[in-house]
Amino acid sequence: MAAALVALGLAAPAAADDQAGGVFSPRCHAASDSSRSAEAMIDRSAWNCTDTGWQADRPVAWLRFEAADWQGAKVPRHFLTRTSRHERITIYSLDTGGSLRGRSFAEADGRTFPAGPVFRLPLPVVTPETEALLVRIDRPHSIPLLSEAGVVHDPEDAYRSVQEMMLLALVLGMLVLPLLFDITFFIVLRERFVMFHSIMVVAMMGYVLFAGGVISVLASLPVAFLAVMAPLCWAVGCGAALLFLSEFLERGALSRRMRRITYWTGCWTIAVPGFFALQLHATQAFDDTGYFLTIMPSAMVVSVALVHAILRGSRSARFVAAAWFPLILTSIARLLRGLGIYAGPSNLDLMMFLATGIEVVVISLAIADRFLAIRNERDAALTEARMLEQISTRDSLTGLMNRRAIEARFDALLTQGFDTFALVDLDRFKAINDRHGHQMGDAALIACANAIRAAGDRDSIAVRLGGEEFVVLLRGENTLHRAEALRQAIPLRIAQDVPGLELPVTASMGVIMLSRAAHQTMQFAEFYARADALMYEAKASGRNRLAYERLTVFSEPPALRRKAARKGQAT
Question: Catalytic annotation on 468?
Answer without folding.
Answer: yes
